[in-house]
Amino acid sequence: MKKTISKTLLALAIAGMACSQLHAEDSAAESTINEQQLEQVADQIATAAAPEITDPNETLEQLIEDFKSSPLGQSFSSNPQIFFGVGQATVMVSPESREWGNARVMAYKEATLKAQAEYIRFLGMSITSESLSRLFEDRSQTPRFDEADLRSATRLGELLDKAVAVAGGKLDQQLQEMGIDPDEFRAAPRTKRAEIFSRSVSSTTIVRGRQEITGIVPVKTFEAYDAQGNHVVAVAVVASPNFRQFVHDIVQSKGDIAAKPDKALSMPLRDYLRANPAALLDDFGIRRMYDEHGYPVLVSFGQASNPYRGNDFQRRSDNRELAFSAARAESFANFANLFNATGMVTEATTLTAQRSTEEVATADRMQVTLSTETSDEIARKINNEIATRGRVDNLVGTRELFRWSQKHPMHGHDIHGVVYVWHPLAEQQAHQLRNFKPAPTTNAGQQQAEKPRSTGQAGSHQSRDLMSADDF
């Protein structure tokens, strides 16, 4: 009876221990699951809190694709009579640079060149391609040091040690001044190498094109940037036989071009372009537009930045005027590239894949050690050049429509720009002035303007209206 009770108590105790162990394992499993869940939640929170990294190049490409899909973009890109091309470039400096505004202008210039290069390739190019495969093995080319080499090396080391001792450290100082560690210099062993195996393949492609690019104009510009201030830009250009004929007619017509009333603006051209001042920051290149009477006009945009940030009024004014001068030059260049321009593209690309084995003999005084070195190399060499040149002689009827100044809305740089316009009526007026022949002079009274007196205060003034358009 006692034995039966003892066995029963023992069984209950064992069962209790087993239950306790099971509860402990369940608790441990539950604790592990909770920790895993917490880690997952923490990772999700960290991922959500991390700033989203966007590549401005991808944003730019999406802008271009959206434009191509738009009705206006399709009218350019899907028209078989029109060439449509796009070039992209990166602003080379960060917005912290004082020259960022000018670097942005040059980025648009580079993008235009790349778009023009697409046009040059489209018109015609010559292509040369060369490929080479090489397999080499010669294991008899083992590098060797003869006894005379080893003795001379040993003798040189001894002389060097004596020179250091006599010079009292001056030689070491001279070596250090040349950027050479004296210990490494004295300890450096001599080596001889010999190629015993090589396998390589290389391909070289050369593309050349030279074409007339008269009449190619930009129709749209794009710009994208990230939170770090990295900017990328793109320029879309078009060319067509009809537009080249229009450019030819401008040169030959001397301003005798008819208006198209159905294309007339609802307001004066100057007011239309100035209605959205912020848009002027994105206008680059030259456009064919129509004025309020339907006359076709060429509008050329140029801009530059003022890098001066100090408070000196004279320096700020001087740099402002220099910026306007640079903008004017850019605007004039647009006319030259439109009326008479050629472009040249040269691209040379070489790709090489090579695996080689060298046997190396290393001589340290009288000791020679042989070793083998194997190397793999994938090399790419690219040299691309795009060059354009424009020239226009005797451009008549071009004048400054207006100039503008703004601070860049994101980075605060002072941007100054000019807008120049060619108008057929203005060309006719210019020819009349150039061909002017005076009529007989009649007596007319002359009126002398009064000299303005300084008030010692800030202000402004202008001349009196002494003439009217009827005088002309």
Give a brief rundown of this model.
Strand 8 and strand 9 (367-390) form a beta hairpin. Helix content is 39%, strand content 31%.
Key features?
single chain; 472 residues; alpha+beta; 11 helices; 11 strands
Give average pLDDT, whole number: 83
Rounded to an integer, what's the Rg over CA atoms? 39 Å
- Helical residues, percent: 25-40%
Number of DSSP strand runs = 11
Q: Could you name the ranges where pLDDT drops below 50 across 5 or more consecutive residues?
A: 1-20
Strand ordering within the main sheet = 2-3-8-9
Taking the alpha carbons of the first and last residues, their distance comes to 140 Å
Shape estimate: elongated
List the helices and strands in order: HHHEHEHHHEEEHHEEHEEEEH
What does the main sheet amount to? 4 strands, antiparallel
Number of helices: 11
Structural class: alpha+beta
**Strand content bin:** 25-35%
Describe this structure in words.
- The protein has helices at residues 2-49, 56-69, 71-77, 100-123, 147-167, 170-177, 182-187, 241-253, 269-274, 313-339, 424-434; strands at residues 83-90, 126-137, 190-212, 217-225, 231-239, 285-290, 296-306, 341-364, 367-390, 398-407, 414-422.
- The model is unreliable at 1-20 (pLDDT under 50).
- The radius of gyration is 39 Å and the shape is elongated.
- Helix 2 (56-69) crosses helix 3.
- The protein has a 4-stranded antiparallel β-sheet with strand order 2-3-8-9. Strands 6-7-11-10 form a 4-stranded antiparallel β-sheet.
- The protein starts with a helix and ends in a 38-residue tail after the last helix.
- The chain contains 11 helices and 11 strands.
- It is of the alpha+beta class.
- Strand 4 and strand 5 form a beta hairpin.
